[in-house]
């Protein structure tokens, strides 16, 4: 589903990704762990197509297409979802308005009929309930005045509504208390655990992986994948730390 | 026949105006004053919509609001090459002036609101919110002058101006002027000029919104501040949609 081959990227001329390769198949969950500043968020942004993140080498194929040739909104329409480490506040725009316009823009791009207001609200209610989020929250401005944990849950409601085939979730577990972590973990499973979908979880902690069981765990350091393994690699990291495991 | 002087950029109130227009427009253009009186305790709301975009380039209006009265003025300037809406409002005791203005334009358009609010008696309040959205080589201006006469205690006057410049060549100017001769007075002023929030634009793109849709949503939220005080929802939406329609046609 996703094939990243020897990806190089820089920001302001500073090399951040240095030949990163990763293959994710449909039906799989991959975890990417790594020290601060390793380039995890950069990888997510490069996949999303954020302006300022310049790809200087390598390729990314998503669902058989050249991902890097697409505009950010086109990547979303073909099924890519980026869960932000720091979800963005949009004053004056409500979640409902934002998500309805976003979903319908995606649907139009895919040649599908846009949803009516009623159809959209029904869908939004269903996904909000999945994440134990009050519909009233969705009527409020996007992420404005939300706590850290509420922002992360709202990201997952967005994911549920947009129903992507590949989710790159950047530290979705940070800022969550133990109950919220379970709700989010179960939400990810409910929305994304399917034979035709895949998830890349970027995380610092083992604890989210207790709920969303990874098929593979990778360590990202200095802009590349330096070690890959099964779920036991995450446990090893938790016990011994990066220095020990990467040595 | 009164003889009026042709304004020039040397005058405070015309410093950002279109110089070519000032030197070539027929002199009567500058003396076209309309008078409005709001009786004590009465409420009057006036709206100038993008649709009937300023019939003449310069419209000037002198308003007197009687004690306890309320005058509201909401306007959108979307055309050019030079458009100016000028309001001179005198407030009696406990009267209120509410103003919301939006300039929105490209090319070399110069679009400006100029207000002079005279708090002539105690306890009067005024609130002015102006939003400018400019692209091309256009300019959006807000010159707001507040005068508080002696003994006009408990005056509360607020002004807020924010501009979004969608392209490099566009500009915006604001210059608050305060002349205060009373001591128990609250005057608040805020101003900010910036570009469209690129972080928000990327976030919206990452959710599937094409750039022009994301921009329209952000601009809508931005200019909505200027019309937030319109309590009639239909009227508020009409003002917003009218302005935005112009953005769709013209911007980029
Ligand atoms: N906008 C930016 N400009 C310059 N350097 C940046 C920018 N964003 C991130 N970096 C640098 O890129 C490196 C990787 O950052 P990031 O991808 O955020 O790491 P991680 O998510 O793994 O903690 C860091 O050294 C960071 O300082
Ligand atoms: Mg990060």
UniProtKB/TrEMBL annotation, chain A:
Highest rank taxon of the organism: Bacteria
Domain ABC transporter: 2-247
Entry keywords, A to Z: ATP-binding, Nucleotide-binding
CDD domains noted in UniProt: ABC_FeS_Assembly
Keyword ATP-binding belongs to the record: yes
GO molecular function, one term: ATP hydrolysis activity
Coiled-coil residues: none
Family listed: Belongs to the ABC transporter superfamily. Ycf16 family.
PANTHER family for this protein: ABC TRANSPORTER I FAMILY MEMBER 6, CHLOROPLASTIC
Protein name: Fe-S cluster assembly ATPase SufC
Organism of provenance: Tsuneonella suprasediminis
Gene name tied to this protein: sufC
């Amino acid at each position: 589903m996703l094939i990243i081959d020897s990806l190089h990227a820089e920001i302001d001329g500073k090399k951040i990704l240095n030949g990163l390769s990763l293959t994710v198949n449909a039906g799989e969950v991959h975890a990417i762990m790594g020290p601060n500043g390793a380039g995890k968020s950069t990888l997510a942004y490069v996949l999303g197509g954020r302006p300022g993140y310049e790809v200087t080498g390598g390729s990314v194929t998503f669902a058989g297409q050249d991902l890097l040739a697409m505009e950010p909104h086109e990547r979303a329409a073909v099924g890519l979802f980026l869960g932000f480490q720091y979800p963005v506040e949009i004053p004056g725009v409500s979640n409902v308005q934002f998500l309805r316009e976003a979903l319908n823009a995606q649907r139009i791009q895919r040649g599908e009929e846009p949803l009516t207001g009623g159809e959209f609200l029904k869908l939004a209610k269903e996904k909000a309930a999945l994440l134990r989020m009050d519909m009233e929250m969705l009527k409020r401005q996007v992420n404005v005045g939300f706590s850290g944990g509420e922002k992360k849950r709202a990201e997952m409601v967005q994911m549920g509504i947009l129903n992507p085939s590949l989710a790159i979730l950047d530290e979705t577990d940070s800022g969550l208390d133990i109950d919220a972590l379970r709700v989010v973990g179960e939400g990810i499973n409910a929305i994304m655990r399917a034979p035709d979908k895949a998830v890349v979880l970027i995380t610092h902690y083992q604890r989210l992986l207790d709920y969303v069981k990874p098929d593979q765990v990778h360590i990202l350091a200095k802009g590349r994948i330096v070690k890959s393994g099964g779920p036991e690699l995450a446990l090893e990291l938790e016990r011994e730390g990066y220095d020990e495991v990467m040595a | 026949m009164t003889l009026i002087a042709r304004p020039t950029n040397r005058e405070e109130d015309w410093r950002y105006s279109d110089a070519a227009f000032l030197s070539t427009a027929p002199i009567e253009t500058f003396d076209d004053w309309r008078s409005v009186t709001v009786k004590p305790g009465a409420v009057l709301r006036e709206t100038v919509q993008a649709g009937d975009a300023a019939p003449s380039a310069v419209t000037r209006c002198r308003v007197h609001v009687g004690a306890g009265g309320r005058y509201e003025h909401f306007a959108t300037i979307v055309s050019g090459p030079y458009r100016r809406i000028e309001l001179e409002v005198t407030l009696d005791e406990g009267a209120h002036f509410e103003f919301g203005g939006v300039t929105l334009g490209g090319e070399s358009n110069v679009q400006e609101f100029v207000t002079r609010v005279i708090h002539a008696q105690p306890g009067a309040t005024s609130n002015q919110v102006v939003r400018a959205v400019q692209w091309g080589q256009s300019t959006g201006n807000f010159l707001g002058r507040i005068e508080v006469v002696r003994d006009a205690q408990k005056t509360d006057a607020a002004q807020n101006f924010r501009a979004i410049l969608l392209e490099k060549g566009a500009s915006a100017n604001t210059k608050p002027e305060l002349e205060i001769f009373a001591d128990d007075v609250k005057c608040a002023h805020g101003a900010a000029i910036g570009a469209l929030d690129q972080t928000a634009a990327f976030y919206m793109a990452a959710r599937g919104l094409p750039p022009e849709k994301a921009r329209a949503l952000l601009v809508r939220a931005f200019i909505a501040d200027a019309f937030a005080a319109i309590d009639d929802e239909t009227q508020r939406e009409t003002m917003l949609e009218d302005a935005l329609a112009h953005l769709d046609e013209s911007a980029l």
